[in-house]
Amino acid sequence: SPAPAAADLPKPPASAAPPDDGQWTMPAKNDAATRYSALNQINGDNAKNLRVEFTFSTGTTHGEEAAPIVADNTMYIVTPWPNWVYALDLTKPGAPMKWKYEPPPIAASQGVACCDTVNRGGVFWQNKFYFNTLDGRTIALDVNTGKPVWITQLGDISKGESITMAPFLVKDKVLVGVSGGEFGVRGWTTALDANTGKIVWKAFHTGPDKDVLIGPDFHPFYTQDRGKDLGVSTWPPEAWKIGGGSNWGWMAYDPDLNLLYEEAANPGPWNAEQRPGDNLWTDGIFARDPDTGAAKWYYQYNPHDEHDYDGINEIILLDVPIDGKIRKVLMHPDRNGYLYMLDRTTGEIVSAHPYGYVNSIKTIDKKTGRPVVNPDKNTKLGTIVHDICPTASGAKDWEPSSFSPRTGYLYIPHENLCMDWENVQANYIAGTPYVGANVVMKPGPGGFRGEVSAWNVETGKPVWQIREDLPAWSGTLATAGDLVFYGTMDGWFKAVDAKTGALKWQFKTGSGIIGQPIAYRGPDGREYIAILSGVGGWSGAIVPGALDPRDPTGALGFVGAMADLKLKTAAGGTLYVFALPPS
Amino acid sequence: SPAPAAADLPKPPASAAPPDDGQWTMPAKNDAATRYSALNQINGDNAKNLRVEFTFSTGTTHGEEAAPIVADNTMYIVTPWPNWVYALDLTKPGAPMKWKYEPPPIAASQGVACCDTVNRGGVFWQNKFYFNTLDGRTIALDVNTGKPVWITQLGDISKGESITMAPFLVKDKVLVGVSGGEFGVRGWTTALDANTGKIVWKAFHTGPDKDVLIGPDFHPFYTQDRGKDLGVSTWPPEAWKIGGGSNWGWMAYDPDLNLLYEEAANPGPWNAEQRPGDNLWTDGIFARDPDTGAAKWYYQYNPHDEHDYDGINEIILLDVPIDGKIRKVLMHPDRNGYLYMLDRTTGEIVSAHPYGYVNSIKTIDKKTGRPVVNPDKNTKLGTIVHDICPTASGAKDWEPSSFSPRTGYLYIPHENLCMDWENVQANYIAGTPYVGANVVMKPGPGGFRGEVSAWNVETGKPVWQIREDLPAWSGTLATAGDLVFYGTMDGWFKAVDAKTGALKWQFKTGSGIIGQPIAYRGPDGREYIAILSGVGGWSGAIVPGALDPRDPTGALGFVGAMADLKLKTAAGGTLYVFALPPS
Ligand SMILES: O=C(O)c1cc(C(=O)O)c2c(n1)C(=O)C(=O)c1cc(C(=O)O)[nH]c1-2
Ligand SMILES: O=C(O)c1cc(C(=O)O)c2c(n1)C(=O)C(=O)c1cc(C(=O)O)[nH]c1-2
Predict the structure, then answer these.
(1) Which of A104, A158, A463, B315 pairs with A141 at a CA distance of 20 to 30 A?
(2) Check: complex ipTM more than 0.85
């Protein structure tokens, strides 16, 4: 059958994905979070000529997860702790530093990072660069001077709070969430005034309605999410106060609906027997009024999560033709292995298909909105439950997908891992790990540990799948040259054909890649592709953390699946920028 | 005048520079230490097409000074402390690791490194890879397994001994010298049996003749070096026991003469008023029988050194037509700013010309063999002597020159710095700094801090000079493509025309370059150029050492000259390998 005309394909709402100006001012590229670049100089025919244009070492050796940010011919990079920010001048040969900002770092914050001392990048807005620090601050820098305009301390490491996520900017507000689900924090998302750093609103992800900013406007689609103070009553007494539900991931914004989408991570502790109940509002998504924080609707991906299936993965806003009508949806490939299409006006499930190997959930019941869990994979005190798939890290973790309006495909980087899990008693001590599980991960069925798949949003089916030996822990980038870029944990940076998945080009960077590729138009009018190389993150923690490969429970069980990584790559943060030779 | 025929040009003795096999098995390429590659695919015409072929992160963030070593299609890299060794398989795409060796490191050794925790690389010989560790060990690895064949502990960090130099292999012996001139060590060079690691001989650089291996065969050219136990009598009582004269630099070997050339660094402490006398055998060069260590001749570059002018710079063996005869010489650009041509059979000075700006020495008296020092630049207790040139780090430091037999030029990477110096009392406490001087360095005349010069060995004159903003702290590589490669401390890797110095190509690596470039023939028959990027060393210590740019005395005075370096580059070790696109 002939390819459908582009007009028939899903596409992001225009208000949330304006015409490409060749810059890349926020990690997800736009409010719809498509990570799609309209630049098309680099394509499947000429990609073989791509070459390194320049490189820049970050001076750090932990996981480099940040997206490089490009605005006004300057590139901004945030490093892992101590969260240095570099501004590079793209108008000069070799892109020399314009300035470097070194926040005064609290070294002890490294001790409350669950999954390597990472940072997912910053945002450019009106001559300011916004980013978060592991020790719980949001900082706005003046891009001309590299000096702080304001610094707001949000997290408290003595309670186990840290921040690793990239701030998200809506109108004149900076949205920030806290990390610390493995330390018994009480999760929240907050909005700061972008000009002053003052807190405008703060929404907790557990506790009484007033703290969660649930009020008369709140209309969740499914009945179990309706009622008073469910963030208290779906927990044992007091447990919600140390119940996790952090937000260390991605958001999106629909300007037409004026809805902010923000998510909550796993409930704590991992030992679910210590917290009977649905544990609202963890592992779910809120639609909120960004001006007030007021909740509009909510959907819970994983009620009473037994497997650490944080709900913070990326949210991509699309308008999809369904049964002859355009439906306003959001796509969310959850850790639990299902790709959700939710109505973004109401929170109703439109569809939910597994995109990886899942045996912990049998199906998603579209009527109740609840996953039908496999009781064989329930976790228990004193019992090792074997071969739960996916792992605690999910069928995919935080590494974000991209969407091309030219193909209608979602490009999902993900994992193929399973685990053995034993509950143990967790005891809460502020600022220390509050987990309650012994976990050992291993490769999933087929033995490969990662995969990049192209997903047809309309049919709910994969179009192509690329198997990778190691977990696919980098984001993907889709371009109008019909290429998809991603990196591997042993350092290959690849360009594949967006339609077929055929490998068009690859380059071996210095360290494993777990970053977010971007594209931008340089001052010379050429298209450039940038990626940070630097292994780490949860999956790669064995390398920069110098963990013992003989202890499979290391890194909360990830070492079990990654004992060989030290022989495949070494640590080290470096920016790589690629282009075609000038013609 | 027409260019002289190649036959008339200086050239290394054939026995010390055999025909190029396309490998690079020792840092200086051959026993004559020419650092010249006969590969010529890459030349001035096509160098503009050079591109990064692959990269490899070392996992460390201190100065990367090692030469990559290539043998049997495998590349070996030694990192700064903790001195990891990587073997990379050049036959596979992206050159994946064959193995990684992690020595059990003594962390406290970092505290007795004067000038960053560097390592200058290893040597390949008969399926073993030899290297030294900062904590004083020489290790032989089986290249097939990456496991140690033997480990010999040579240095004792409790006495301030460390090792940073690359071992030098002569016949079946591994030659190693100790670092620690700034910690009051008693310097030595030792020979180990390459098969067993057993010590064959050990020659101290101070003390009684028997310890220095001075016996009946010793015939120094100049009278002041003749006499009994001068290594005792040229010092105040007992001072020779803590008098420095380490060997952390370069050696060379003439198979025809069966002479090993090895050198001694500065006397300690820097405060020369505490050690009246010539302080033999520091700051000089020995010719020895490599089988027994017996000294044959000696020449002292800097008697009673007042300025830390270590004598350990590179030694390049050449046969030079002089007055119609071929003279067997060695070239040594000393820290004191003079390029020495010594008769390598006798130790007589053939010529000595300044190759940088020098005001601490007026001339070298060829009759006495002694420098005529400028009394205005004598250092004194309680007095700041201003504008001494060159600095303690020399007109050049350890970064080695190369020589092309096609041009007859020596390519000298060096510095242009001056200093203010005040002697202070030094008190010896084993294992702690024993220096006795407050030093502040600054740019030399003209304001530029570094230079690469091509030196006509026959005329004793510079042919071209390239000024660099920052000290030229990387080695140079000369190739038969008539190119000279070197790196800058802000990360540019450059290829210049060997005849004119014209820039032919440059690439911005991730971090400042202070390494040793090499060339090799890949398994595919192509010519490859490799360099480690990673700022550090003494001059760059401010970056990986995170020193305060406001204290100019930091890093023994180097911060004074390098306060801006943190804004020019960031730390991080990465291997870059370049080639032309396959044709
Ligand atoms: O619950 C939390 O607060 C929290 C925080 C983080 C984080 O901040 O990096 C991770 C996780 N959880 C987590 O579950 C997880 O899989 C994870 C992976 C990574 C990473 O950077 O690779 N971080 C985190
Ligand atoms: O006297 C010594 O033992 C000693 C050791 C070292 C070393 O081992 O790196 C240096 C020096 N001195 C020294 O004087 C010097 O200029 C120097 C520079 C460097 C470097 O790696 O950049 N090391 C050393």
Answers:
(1) A158
(2) yes
